[in-house]
Amino acid sequence: MTTPAPRSLPQRSLKVAVLGATGAVGQELLALLAERRFPVAELVLLASPRSAGQSLEWNGRAHTIQPVSAEAFEGVDVVLASAGGSVSKQWAPVAAAAGAVVIDNSSAFRMDEAVPLVVPEVNPQAAFDHRGIIANPNCTTILMTLALAPLAARRPLRRVVVSTYQSASGAGARAMEELRNLSQTVLDGGTPASSVLPHSLAFNLFLHNSPLQENGYCEEELKMLHETRKIMGLPELRVSATCVRVPVLRAHSEAINIEFAEPFPVEEARALLAKAPGVELLEDFSANRFPMPTDVTGRDAVAVGRIRQDLSEPNALELWLCGDQIRKGAALNAIQIAELLLDPARAEQAAAAAAPAGAGA
Fold this sequence. Notes:
Blueprint: E1 14-19, H1 24-35, E2 40-47, E3 55-58, E4 61-64, E5 66-67, E6 78-81, H2 85-97, E7 101-104, E8 133-135, H3 139-152, E9 157-166, H4 173-187, E10 206-207, H5 219-232, E11 238-245, E12 252-260, H6 266-274, E13 279-281, H7 293-296, E14 302-309, E15 316-323, H8 327-342, H9 344-354
Parallel strand pairs: 1-2, 1-6, 2-5, 6-7, 7-8, 9-11, 13-14
Antiparallel strand pairs: 3-4, 9-12, 10-11, 12-15, 14-15
């Protein structure tokens, strides 16, 4: 199998394949392709054999879902993949060898040294180092790096401590439906029994259910460590995460403590975040009003607020953010990567502003 050379997408309408078209992220990808008027000449919908033959409407036309196969990638320019790691490991190299650029939403290739891991507002230039596959980061990492990047471009980062409050949407459409159903069960006086998640999320929360590692951290928490380092080009950055699943349908929240190499005035940080791409400043200290999941559900921007000085460390700031996990945390980020490949000049301009100041000692 030959390895494709780095390339932009051709400047014309494209043949686009969505792998995992029936899932929550796949549905959001389809909606965003239409909403953002991505130049789609032909759309190919791919899913598991059990979904093959079903019909989905896109842009006023019915499209039949096909089972994934090598033949399905013939002539495809870009593949937007959101079908899980095992599917991506099997089919992404096949699609890339056929000439497509694969933007993969799974964890299959994120830490592969030969595969760029991209948040367009943070490291846009990395997208052009691909060899046919580009990895979309974990949802919590995407949201966090949007807030870290404009600050890191001004003063070196030393350490990040984050606690996440992750919605049911992070576990997929079935988990969202289970939360709806089990919440009603509790309200009706019944005892909720979960079959999708390991515990009922109805009026409950629990530590993230990804596999625990020998060091006591779960896989989700380590993703935030390793992916943040790779995206920001700070291989020694100290990151500690605690990830929690909470009874919210859609949109994740994060409480972040950021330590710098020197003091960072709050007003300066607030001004940087207020104008940062992909970020919306939402804070009213007089009314105690800061970002909530309902503020960002169905929206592109990551809302940041309650920026304040850490009382225990003069070089650290605290902030809170909320972002739509399905949208910016997954589908939107993938489509923005594809849009970058259509406009290399814009990526070069963004890269100059996104460069971090470097890691502190």
